Amino acid sequence: MLFSGGRTPRREEKKDKRVEKDESLKIQASTFMRWANFLFEDNPVREVKDLVDLKFLTYVTQLITGTTIPISHNRQHDIATVITTLFPDEDEKAHQLSISELVEAVPKAVLALTWQIIHAFWRKYAPEGARDRKLAEAIKEWCLEATADYEEVGISDFTSSWRDGYAFNALLHSYDETLVDMSAIQAMRGDERLDNAFQIAFNKFNVPKLLHAKVSIFWNF
User: Fold this and answer.
1) Considering the domain boundaries, does residue 203 fall inside one?
2) Which of 33, 68, 109, 149 is positioned for an S-S bond with 101, CB 3.0–4.6 A?
3) Burial class (CB within 10 angstroms; exposed 0-12, middle 13-18, buried 19+) of 214
């Protein structure tokens, strides 16, 4: 009892961090599933475990590498084959993942593999000159260059710098000034600015809505 007062705040702090981490994983899973559905429209991905469904994995592997992987119905063998095909370099992070956890569709392992697949997708389809760079670094540098003249935008990460919606709208405005009225969005709430940018990106460039404005507080990719 003497020390209960000192432990309670720590316990509450740990609990809050755990809740935020769990919520962040949910958002990440939801975003990755939307990305997968954008690629794989004929076979919807409805749950995290569907991200390691062999139909999806072999489809993505063929899309990225051009290699068709026959399904042997031995999940452990087939998932291992997908990883070695997508990531021939054994030093790639994907090789550090547990095959058994992927077979069992453990969410953390599934999301880690999906993130590595997104990196592989980037190396295949990114503009020449950027493919050998790390995805996050290349995108951040491009965003900094595009928004350098916007005083209301300060990009230092992929979380808090984007939550007020200014950065997304500034990116669109930097490409075409007629797309966004930067004065008008100042009167909007953060979630409204985000919705505005996402809707314009979808309508004008067919960019899928992978993020939801209402849960932007938990973004952590």
Assistant:
1) yes
2) 109
3) exposed
Alpha-carbon gap, residue 213 to 197, rounded angstroms? 10
29 contacts: CB under 8 Å, gap ≥ 6: 48, 107, 111
Containing 187, the helix (H) or strand (E) segment is none
| pLDDT reported for residue 82 | 96
Q: Domain of 176: which CATH number?
A: 1.10.418.10
Domain boundary among the residues 72, 90, 125 is at: 125
Q: Which domain holds residue 59?
A: 14-125
Number of domains in the chain: 2
pLDDT of residue 15: 57
What pLDDT does 134 receive? 82
Q: Which two tokens stand for residue 147?
A: 């928004």
Structural contact between residues 38 and 59, judged by C-beta atoms closer than 8 angstroms: no
Distances (CA, A) of 117 to 87, 125, 159, 176: 9, 12, 21, 31
CA distances for 208 relative to 139, 193, 203, angstroms: 17, 17, 9
* Average pLDDT, consecutive stretches of 10 residues, N- to C-terminus, the chain (221 residues): 50 60 78 88 86 94 94 93 93 90 94 93 84 83 92 86 91 95 92 93 88 56 41
| Phi, psi angle pair for 39, to nearest 5° | -80, -35
Give the C-alpha distances (Å, rounded to integers) separating 189 from 37, 154, 166, 172, 174: 29, 18, 10, 18, 21
Q: Do residues 21 and 107 share a domain? A: yes
